[in-house]
């Protein structure tokens, strides 16, 4: 049975990759993008990833995967692991919901975790920084088996860290693709604080409603004010507001963002390297291609 790579091992190795200033042309054709995937796969192998069957085929007939997530308009799910956040397949045009009773989030996903997931048309057409990050993100899912509330933020950290190392080496640290990835990751960390703050405020509001301290109307009015304020803060980070900012969207996002700051702290804890490296080599779980940091 294939061994599972611990999160800290990959975090350590990625942080140790020395990026160069070499610059190469940015892939624009489908053939170039597929060749880029092969380069990413080779880079993953250097990092210690187990080989996956993901992205070895191109399926242009698959535009994207249309998902729906919904929950009560006065309930805040913990994450995708929470049964209160119901997942289904469909689009706004194909699904009928009572939007006064439920908050819904419709998402066209360019790629989903799973052995042998193909390159979809939307992934092929994605901006290059996102394209690269998604490949690393989804391939990481094949390395671990955790709850979504832990696996997704770890995939975010690995996806961005590996993508930054890869693009810094291939295109240069001053390249637009590398700078964009760096900025997006910084924004992710900033928005995680906003989501964490407003999650608590909304959770408190709904608790007051459940305890009978607020009417449903008052609850929804206060909810709208909180979401407006939250949207304004997110606008300050991204330059735009989420178009579906509601309980379902927040519960979905918290799957990725709740533990992101903590995992980032682990990533930055370089003093921990001296502790884990002897364990890594004693268990021969990675190549000795990186004997020191």
Kindly describe this structure:
The structure is a single chain. The chain is mainly alpha-helical and 293 residues long. It has a domain at 7-17 and 24-57 and 127-277. The chain contains 10 helices and 5 strands; from the N terminus they run ααβββββαααααααα. The chain has helices at residues 7-16, 30-47, 121-124, 128-141, 148-170, 176-210, 216-238, 247-257, 260-268, 273-282; strands spanning 58-59, 65-72, 86-89, 102-109, 119-120. The strands form 2 sheets. It has a 3-stranded antiparallel β-sheet, with helices on one face. α4 (128-141) crosses α6 and α6 runs antiparallel to α7. The relative contact order is 0.17. The model is unreliable at 1-6, 8-13, 15-23 and 271-293 (pLDDT under 50).
Secondary structure: elements and pairs:
Elements: H1 7-16, H2 30-47, E1 58-59, E2 65-72, E3 86-89, E4 102-109, E5 119-120, H3 121-124, H4 128-141, H5 148-170, H6 176-210, H7 216-238, H8 247-257, H9 260-268, H10 273-282
Parallel strand pairs: 1-5
Antiparallel strand pairs: 2-3, 2-4
Helix pairs in contact: 1-5, 4-5, 4-6, 5-6, 5-8, 5-9, 6-7, 6-8
Keyword list:
about 290 residues; mainly alpha; three-stranded antiparallel beta sheet; two-stranded parallel ribbon; 10 helices; about 55% helix; globular; disordered N terminus; disordered C terminus
């Amino acid at each position: 049975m294939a061994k599972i790579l611990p999160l800290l091992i990959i975090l350590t190795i990625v942080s140790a990759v020395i990026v160069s200033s070499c610059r190469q042309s940015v892939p624009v054709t489908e053939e170039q993008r597929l060749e880029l995937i092969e380069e990413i796969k080779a880079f993953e192998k250097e990092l210690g990833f187990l080989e996956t069957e993901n992205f070895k085929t191109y399926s242009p007939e698959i535009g994207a995967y249309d998902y729906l997530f919904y929950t009560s308009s006065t309930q805040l799910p913990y994450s995708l692991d929470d049964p209160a956040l119901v997942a289904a397949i469909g689009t706004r045009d194909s699904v009928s919901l009572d939007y006064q009773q439920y908050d819904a989030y419709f998402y066209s996903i360019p790629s989903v975790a799973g052995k042998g997931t193909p390159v979809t048309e939307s992934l092929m057409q994605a901006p290059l920084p996102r394209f690269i990050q998604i490949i690393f993100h989804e391939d990481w899912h094949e390395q671990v088996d955790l709850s979504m509330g832990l696996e997704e933020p770890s995939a975010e950290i690995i996806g961005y860290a590996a993508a930054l190392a890869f693009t810094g080496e291939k295109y240069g640290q001053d390249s637009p693709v590398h700078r964009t990835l760096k900025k997006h990751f910084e924004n992710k960390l900033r928005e995680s604080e906003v989501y964490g703050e407003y999650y608590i405020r909304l959770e408190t509001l709904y608790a007051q409603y459940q305890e009978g301290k607020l009417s449903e109307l008052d609850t929804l009015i206060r909810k709208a004010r909180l979401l407006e304020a939250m949207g304004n803060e997110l606008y300050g980070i991204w330059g735009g507001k989420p178009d579906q900012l509601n309980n379902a969207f927040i519960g979905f996002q918290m799957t990725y963002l709740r533990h992101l700051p903590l995992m980032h702290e682990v990533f930055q804890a370089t003093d921990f390297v001296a502790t884990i490296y002897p364990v890594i080599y004693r268990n021969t779980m990675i190549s000795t291609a990186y004997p020191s940091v």
